[in-house]
């Protein structure tokens, strides 16, 4: 399928008419009509916002893949960390991504501090 067909399908699957969809993206109904008729394409920023709105990839919207969503792996504690008790009990499955990032940053900072002490 092509972008204009996918856009129409995604919009109608949410029960939105062109006017409602246009308001969401701060464009005119005519702009949405032009997108869905294949006369025009949105700019890259709008395309990215659409992908976020529909919870799909830009490649899916453009018809480059049939996969609606990328399989994004949740960050894990750094594999090099073997002495941390949190790693042993698999705490990373229960924490938000930001917490995992902070733990990894903290561990690296502590390693740097102790490596620098020995110099």
Task: Explain the overall architecture.
This protein is mostly helical. The chain has 2 domains: 3-61, 434 Repressor (Amino-terminal Domain), CATH 1.10.260; 85-117. The protein has helices at residues 3-13, 18-24, 29-36, 44-54, 58-61, 85-88, 97-117. Helix 2 crosses helix 3. The protein is elongated, with a radius of gyration of 22 Å.
Question: Could you give a short description of this structure?
Answer:
It is built from seven helices and no strands.
Topology, pairings included?
Layout lengths: L2 H11 L4 H7 L4 H8 L7 H11 L3 H4 L23 H4 L8 H21 L2
Helix pairs in contact: 2-3
The sequence of SSEs as H and E is HHHHHHH
Shape: elongated
Number of E-state strands: 0
The helix/strand class is mainly alpha
CATH superfamily of the largest domain: lambda repressor-like DNA-binding domains
Gap between N and C termini: 61 Å
Low-confidence stretches: none
Question: How much of the residues is beta strand, in percent?
Answer: under 5%
Quaternary status: single chain
Number of helices: 7
Biggest beta sheet attributes: none
CATH hierarchy, class of the largest domain: Mainly Alpha
Tell me roughly what share of residues is in helical segments. 55-70%
Keywords: DNA-binding
Domain HTH cro/C1-type: 7-61
InterPro entries: Cro/C1-type_HTH (IPR001387), Lambda_DNA-bd_dom_sf (IPR010982)
Protein name: Helix-turn-helix transcriptional regulator
């Amino acid at each position: 399928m092509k972008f204009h067909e996918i856009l129409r399908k995604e919009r109608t699957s949410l029960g939105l008419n062109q006017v409602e969809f246009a308001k969401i993206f701060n464009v005119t109904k005519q702009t949405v009509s032009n997108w869905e008729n294949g006369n025009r394409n949105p700019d890259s920023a709008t395309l990215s916002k659409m992908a976020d709105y529909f919870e799909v990839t830009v490649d899916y919207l453009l018809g480059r893949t049939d996969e609606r969503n990328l399989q994004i792996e949740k960050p894990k504690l750094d594999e090099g960390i073997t002495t941390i008790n949190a790693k042993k009990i698999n705490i990373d499955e229960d924490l938000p991504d930001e917490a995992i990032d902070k733990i990894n940053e903290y561990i690296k900072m502590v390693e740097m501090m102790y490596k620098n002490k020995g110099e």
